């Protein structure tokens, strides 16, 4: 069973990876330009983009951001100090909290999301690499 992939497949995968890295670099720079860290931007997006609701638990955030619970709580703390997010008691479980994006956080997120959508349209990452 010696099925080799065509050179074009490797080129497409390499180009896709390059474009992803390039986009992530762009994203990090844009977050810093508006005055927040890339991690804060990712946290805001993970909350606002969570399927079916506009809040998350710290555990869900850690899972979405691929960071430990301890690191996630620290990031939430820093975001809360800058009024980007707020914690509210979980009405279904008094031992846990729910994390929401504040109005200030939403302003940052909306601005960055518009910038990111324009960049995605500009580079056509998925269309060019895989002929979608």
Strand content: 5-15%
Oligomeric nature of the chains: single chain
One letter per element, helices H and strands E, the order comes to HHEHHEEHH
CATH homologous superfamily?
Answer: Winged helix-like DNA-binding domain superfamily/Winged helix DNA-binding domain
Number of helices: 6
CATH domain topology: Arc Repressor Mutant, subunit A
What global shape is seen? globular
| Number of DSSP E strands | 3
Rounded mean pLDDT score: 92
Q: What gap, in angstroms, lies between the N and C termini?
A: 30 Å
Which radius of gyration do the C-alpha atoms yield? 18 Å
**Which class in CATH terms?**
Mainly Alpha
How much helical structure, as a percent, in the residues? 55-70%
Provide the CATH architecture: Orthogonal Bundle
- Within the largest sheet, what's the order of strands? 1-3-2
Keywords: DNA-binding
Protein name: MarR family transcriptional regulator
Pfam family, one: MarR_2
Domain HTH marR-type: 6-132
In brief, what are we looking at here?
With 132 residues, this protein is of the alpha+beta class. Helix content is 66%, strand content 13%. It has a single domain (10-127), classed as Winged helix-like DNA-binding domain superfamily/Winged helix DNA-binding domain (Arc Repressor Mutant, subunit A).
Textual characterization of the structure:
With 132 residues, this protein is an alpha+beta fold. The protein has one domain (10-127): Orthogonal Bundle (Arc Repressor Mutant, subunit A). Helices cover 66% and strands 13% of the residues. It contains 6 helices and 3 strands. It has helices spanning 7-34, 38-48, 58-65, 69-81, 103-123, 125-130; strands at 55-56, 85-90, 93-101. Strands 1-3-2 form a 3-stranded antiparallel sheet. β2 and β3 form a beta hairpin. The two termini are 30 Å apart. Keywords: DNA-binding. This is MarR family transcriptional regulator.
């Amino acid at each position: 069973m010696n099925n080799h992939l065509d050179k074009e497949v490797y080129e497409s995968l390499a180009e896709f990876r390059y474009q992803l890295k390039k986009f992530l670099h762009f994203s990090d720079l844009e977050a810093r330009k508006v005055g927040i860290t890339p991690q804060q931007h990712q946290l805001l997006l993970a909350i606002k983009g969570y399927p079916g609701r506009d809040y998350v638990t710290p555990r869900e955030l850690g899972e979405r951001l691929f960071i430990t619970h301890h690191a996630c709580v620290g990031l939430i703390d820093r975001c809360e100090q800058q009024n980007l997010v707020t914690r509210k008691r979980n009405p279904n479980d008094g031992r846990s909290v729910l994390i929401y994006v504040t109005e200030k956080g939403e302003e940052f997120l909306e601005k960055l999301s518009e910038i990111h959508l324009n960049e995605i349209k500009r580079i056509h990452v998925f269309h060019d690499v895989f002929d979608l």
